[in-house]
Amino acid sequence: MIKTDLLVIGAGPCGLFTAFEAGLLKMRCHFVDALGQPGGQCSEIYPKKPIYDIPGFPSILAGELIDNLMKQIEPFKPGFTLGERAEKVERLENKSFRLTTNRGTQIEAPVIVIAAGLGCFEPRKPPIEQLGRFEDKGVEYIIREPELYRDKKVVIAGGGDSALDWTIFLSEVAEELTLIHRRRAFRGAPDSVEKVMDLAAAGKIKLLTDAQAVGLEGNGKLTGVKIKHKTDGEILTQTDHFVPLFGLTPKLGPIAEWGLNLTKNAIEVDTFDYSTNVEGIYAIGDINTYPGKLKLILCGFHEATLMVQSAHKYVFPDKKISFKYTTVNGVNAF
C-alpha cells in the first residue's frame, strides 16, 4: 500500500508542476499514469515539437520541457506508478481516498488531483481497407521520433495544425514529402498554412488538395499509397511511411464513473481553487472546464499553484501556510 498527501492522476506538465508547488509546502506527491513514462502528450505524442508560450523560453521542445520539470521536482522525491490506469476510487472511513489501478496497485491519499489532460487518447483513423495490416509497418498515427523519417519518402494526410507543423518540420528531414488534404482550405494556423504553401511553391514538398488516401500497397511493409484526386483521378504514390494526422479522440475512461460533474467530457471546477463537486478531488489542466477556460500549459501551471494552496488547508487544517519567495530562500529552504 502506497500512502501520500496528494495522489496525482496524470504525469503531464501540469501534473508534474504540482509536485513542485506541493514540495514547497512540504507535501508529498505520488503519480499514476497509464503511459510508461512521465510527460503526457509532450513525451508520447510530440516530444520534438517546439512550444512557444512558456514564460522565459522563446522556444522549447516539448520533451525538453518535461526534462526540465523532472529536474525541478527531483528535490521533492515524488513517487511514480507508470504504465497503469486509474480504475477504482473509494472513500475510506477517515475521509481519505483509496485508488486501485488496473493492475491492482493501491494508493491512499486525502486528496486526489486529476491532471489527466484530455484523458486516454485513440487516433482517428481514416476508413482505408487493410489499414491495420500496415500499422507499425509504415503506417503511424503519431510522430514520436522525427529521425525515423530521415531520407525516407513520407505521405502525410490531414489539414489541421499537427499535419501542417509536421509537414514543415519533416520537409528538412524526409527525402520526399507529400501532404494530402481532402479540402482546399486548411484548419491550421494561417502562418503555418503560408509556410506550407511556400514549401510547395519552392518544390520542397508535394501538396495535393481535394485529395484523400483510399488504399495502401505493400508486402509485409508499406510501399505505396493510393490517392484519389478530384481532377487527376487515382494516383499511386511510392512511399515508406503514411502518417494520417486526423487528431486524437479523448476518452475519460473510468474517471467518468467517479461521480464528478462533467460537461462534454471535461470536469467542472470552482476557479477559486479548482476543486470539483467531490470534496477532496481537484482537477487541473486540459481535463477541467470553467467559464473562460484556455487549454494552455501555462494556465495549467497557474491552476496547479492555487490548487495546492487549497489542498494544503484541506489536508492540514491546523497548519498555517508561511508562503515564501523561492528567489529569496531557494528550494532547499522549504
Q: Describe it for me?
A:
By secondary structure, this protein is α/β, with parallel strands linked by helices. It folds into two domains: about 1-120 and about 250-334, FAD/NAD(P)-binding domain (3-Layer(bba) Sandwich); about 125-245, FAD/NAD(P)-binding domain, CATH 3.50.50. About 20% of the residues lie in helices and about 30% in strands. β2, α1 (about 15-25) and β3 form a beta-alpha-beta unit. α1 (about 15-25) runs parallel beside α3, α1 (about 15-25) packs across α6 and α4 (about 160-170) packs across α5 (about 190-200).
**Share of helical residues:** 10-25%
Large-scale geometry? elongated
The total tally of domains equals: 2
SSE-based structural type:
alpha/beta
Radius of gyration: 23 Å
Compute the number of helices. 7
> How far apart are the first and last residues' alpha carbons, in Å?
27 Å
How do the strands of the widest beta sheet line up side by side?
6-3-2-10-22
Strand content: 25-35%
CATH topology heading of the largest domain? FAD/NAD(P)-binding domain
CATH class of the largest domain: Alpha Beta
CATH 2nd-level architecture of the largest domain: 3-Layer(bba) Sandwich
Biggest pleated sheet: 5 strands, parallel
Number of beta strands: 23
Order of helices and strands: EEHEHEEHEEEEEEEHEHEEEEEEEEEEHH
